[in-house]
Please model this.
Amino acid sequence: NGKLDRNALPAPRPVATPAGRAPAGQREELLAALFADLLGLEQVSAEADFFALGGHSLLAARLATRVADVLGHPIPVRQIFDTPTVAALAARSAAPGSPLPALQPVSHDGPLPLSPAQSRLWFLSRLRPGTAYHLPFVLTLTGEVDLDALTAAVGDLAARHAVLRTVFPEADGEPTQHILETAAPVRLRTVQSREAAEELLGALSAEPFALATEPPFRVTVLTERDRTTVLLLIHHIAADEWSVEPLLTDLSAA
Model:
C-alpha cells in the first residue's frame, strides 16, 4: 500500500542503465560480465555490441580466451566478429552436450575478493567521495504502519541478500568483502511536517557510506502524524538499476 515518491528527494546521479534488456540466464550473465570487465564498463545489456562499445581485434582475442576458460571449450575469434553481442555469442557458443558446471556456494568465512565491477566502484568511491553512487528510493505509506513488521521485513531482505550486510575493508592494500551476520538497524526519525521530512530526506540521502565498516544499505523511517516515509539508500557497489527492482519486490513480499 506504499507508493514510490521520487519527488521527495533531490535528483540523484545514478549510473546510466545500458540500453536493451538485461542478460538472462547463466551463460549470458557470464558473458556480460566478461564484456564489461574487458571494456572497463560497469555493466552491459544482452544486446551490447562488443565492437560498438570500444572493442577491437586484440580485445576480441582476449575475450575468446576468457570465454573458453569460462565455458570449458574453445571458440574462434572469428565467432566474436560474427556474433558480437552478448545474446548472440551466448547462443552460438553453447556446445552440444557441454552444459555449464553447476554453481557452488562460496564459504563466507574470512575475506572474499570483489568482483571487477565492485573493485572499480570501491576505487572510485575512495577517489571521489560523494553521492554519485548513491541509489535512493522513497516509499510513502499512509494509514497505520506496523513498524515492527517493517523492521522484520528489512531484516528478512538483508538475510536473503548477503550483499546488503557486507562491508568492504582493506587487507594488505587490497579491498575485500566481509559478510556480517546482520544488517544495519533500521533508523527511526520523527518529523513534524512534510517540509521537514523532505529536508531530512535530502540530508540523509547525501550522507556518505563508510564502506569499510558499514553495510551499503540503510533504511530510515520518518514518521509524521498522518503518514510514514521510508528511505531506502543503497550504494551502487551493492546494486544497480536492474537489481533494485527485485530487491523492492522481495521487500514487499517479506
User: Anything to note?
Assistant: DSSP finds eight helices and nine strands in the chain. The first strand starts at residue 2 and ends at 4.
